[in-house]
Amino acid sequence: MASVNTNIFTQKLPASTLVEAVIALVILLTSLTATITMISNMYGDGVTKPGVEAHIRLCEYKDETLQNKLYTDERKEVNGLILERKISPYQPSIPVNSKSQLLQLRFTAYTPLGDTLSTQLRLIVLE
Amino acid sequence: MMRKPAIASFFLVKLKSAILIYALVISLLSFLFVLGILQFFLVSNQEKLAIIKAEYHEDLLLSGIEFLLAYDQSLSDTSFSVDLFQNERSQLILTKKEFGVFNILIAEYPAGKDTLRKIAQPGCYDFENKTALYLCNSIYELKLGGNALLEGDVYLPERGISRANVSGKSYTRDSLVYGTALKTPGILPKLAQRIIKYSPEYLKKEITRFQIFTISDFYPKTRSFAEKTLVIQCPAGNPDFSDTLNGNFILYSSDSLIIHKNASLTNVLVCAPKIIVEEGFTGNGQFIASDSLIIEKEAKLTFPTVLLLNSKNEKAQPRLLLDENVQVQGLVILSYENKENHYSTAIPLLWIGNQCKVMGSVYSTHAVYHRGEIWGSLYCPQLTDLSQGLNENILLDGQISKRKQPKVMPDFQLFDKPLKSRVIQWLP
Q1: How far is B108 from chain A (nearest CA, A)?
Q2: B50 touches chain A (CB under 8 A)
Q3: What average pLDDT does the structure give for chain A?
C-alpha cells in the first residue's frame, strides 16, 4: 500500500477553487479582527503611551506645585501636552468645622485637541 | 489498517485545498505571535498600571491626612468614612485618636484584601509667636549675668531688666534683649486641658482598656498605631527597663521606672510617678511623671519628645531635672498645683543644667533654674539662681533664643489657642 505524505509543507495539494479562496480570506480576516480587538482592549485599559507620558508630566507638575506652594490656576504647554492646574476651596461631603482652609488641587493633562489624558486630585491645608 | 488521527484526517481528507491549509497555518502562527506580544505588553502595562494606581492611592491617603489636619482642632477621638472627592474610588476611613499629649491621624483605603494606610503625627506651628521668655512674676527685675542671652520677644516684670554681677560673673553682651522687650501680663497662659489631664493617675485608669503584658511576658517589640495600644507593665519592685519598644506602647509602672541607657524607645509613652532616664540614653517618647522626672547627663531625647511632670501632691514637691549635657528636642512641662499654696512658685522645681540644650518650648508653673540653652520659648513665673537666694529673678549663663528654634521641629499645642497643624512625622 502506498504511504500517505502527511507533511503539509511537502505534499502536493490540489489547487483551490474560488469558494475555498473566499473561505481562506474569511479565516484570515477573522484572525486579523480578533488581533485588532485584543490590541484595542489592551489600550482600552488606559495605559497608553501618551497616557503614561501625561501621567509622568502631571506628577512632576504636581510635585513642583506642592514644593513651591503655587496655589493659583494655571494652564501651560509642555512637550506637546496641555497641563492644567485648578485650585478651588474644598467642599467636604460631611459637615465639619475648621479654621484652616482646605484647598482642592486638580491637575489635568490634555492632548492639543482637548482630550483628557490624565487627572490627579489632591487636598492641601493652606498655611 | 490503522486509523489515522482525527486532525491528520481533517487536513488530508476534508481539506484538499492548499490555500485553506496555508490560511489556517498563517492564522495560527499570527495568533501565537500576537499572543506573545500581548503577553509582553500586558506584563509591562500591569507594572505601569500598578505604579499609577499606587501613586493615586498615595495622593488619596495624603489628601485624607490633610483633611484630618484641617479639622484636627474640631475633631475629638473619632473614626469615620468619607468619600473624599465624591467619586467611588476615593472612599477613605479616617481616624483621629489621642496618644498621650500627641494626636495620631490615620487614613485607610480598603483595596481588596489589603488595606492601604498612612499614619501621621501632627504638630503645630505658630508663626506669630516670637516669645523667647515669658515671666509672670512682676515684682523683681530680671538680672542678667555671665553669658546669658535673650533673643526674641521677652515679657518682663514691671521693674524691667538689668545687667548684674552674679557669683562674680558680669553680663558680657552689648544689649540686654535681642528682640522686643514687653511688659508681662502678670499671669501665665493656661496649659491646654488635654495636657493637664495626663498624669500617671489618669493613665492608670486608661490602661485598663488595653491589653497588658508584664515585663517578664513575651511581647512584640514593635506595634503599629493602627492597632490597639499595648501596655507593658513593670512591677513595683523591678523598675529597670532595658528592652526595645517601637510604636504604639505604654510603658507603665505604678511606682517608678528606670530607663537603662541600652534601652531603645521610639514614640513610646512612658508613665510612672517617678522616672529616671539613665546617663547616655538616646531615644524619644512621651515621659509622663507626677513625683520626679530625672534625665541624667549626656542623655539625648530626640524629636518629638515630651517631658511632662504633672503633680497635685500637697505633701511633696515634684522636681524635673535635666542634668548636664542633656539634649531634649520637644516639650518640657512642669505643672504643679498645690491648692493650699504651701510652696512658693519661687522655689525652682525645674532645673536645666550646664550645657543642656532644649529645642522646643519649656513651661513651668514654678521657678526655673536655667544654665543651659533653650532654642524656643520659656514660660515660667521667674528665673532663679540659688546663689542669690529665692527672692531674685536671675538668669546666669542661661540662653534663650526663639530665632534658633529649628523649623523642622514645630511646637505642639501647649495652650488652648487653636493653631494650624502639620505632619511632623510618619508613623509605622
Answers
A1: 16
A2: no
A3: 81
ipTM score of complex: 0.75
pLDDT at B307: 96
Q: Chain A contact for B266, CB < 8 A?
A: no
Give CA–CA dist A48/B199, Å, rounded: 59
List A residues 14-73 in contact with B (Cβ-Cβ < 8 A).
14-17, 20-21, 23-25, 27-28, 30-31, 34-35, 38-39, 42, 45-47, 52, 55, 59, 62
In DSSP notation, B39-56 reads HHHHHHHHHHHHHHHHHH
Residue A50 confidence class, pLDDT cut points 50, 70, 90: confident
Does residue A14 surpass a pLDDT of 70?
A: no
Give a yes or no: residue B101 inside a domain: yes
What sections of B71-157 are H helices per DSSP?
none
**What letters, b where the CB count within 10 A reaches 16 and e where it falls short, cover A86-103?**
ebeebebeeeeebebebb
Q: What integer pLDDT is reported at residue B25 of this predicted model?
A: 79
Distances (CA, A) of B407 to B124, B125, B403: 11, 9, 10
**Distance, in angstroms, between B185 CA and closest chain A CA?**
27
> Would you state the pLDDT for residue A102?
86
Residues of chain B with pLDDT under 50: 1
Residue with cell 514687653: B182
**Neighboring chain B residues of A122 at a CB cutoff of 8 Å:** 59, 62-63, 66
Which of B122, B156, B171 lies at the terminal end of a domain, its last residue?
B122
Contacts of B64 in chain A (CB under 8 A): 123
B192 in the same domain as B80: no
> Domain span at residue B82?
48-122
pLDDT score at A5 = 65
At B410 the pLDDT is 74
Q: Enter the DSSP assignment of B14.
A: I
Answer whether residue A80 shows pLDDT above 60: yes
- Burial track A29-41 (b if 16+ CB lie within 10 A, e otherwise): eebeeebeebeee
Whether A84 and A120 map to the same domain: the answer is yes
In this complex, the residue of B11, B48, B63 whose CB is nearest that of residue A8 is B11
Q: What average pLDDT does the segment A24-48 reach?
A: 73
- Cβ-Cβ contacts under 8 Å, B17 against chain A: 13-17, 20, 24
Q: Which domain holds residue A73?
A: 49-92+99-126
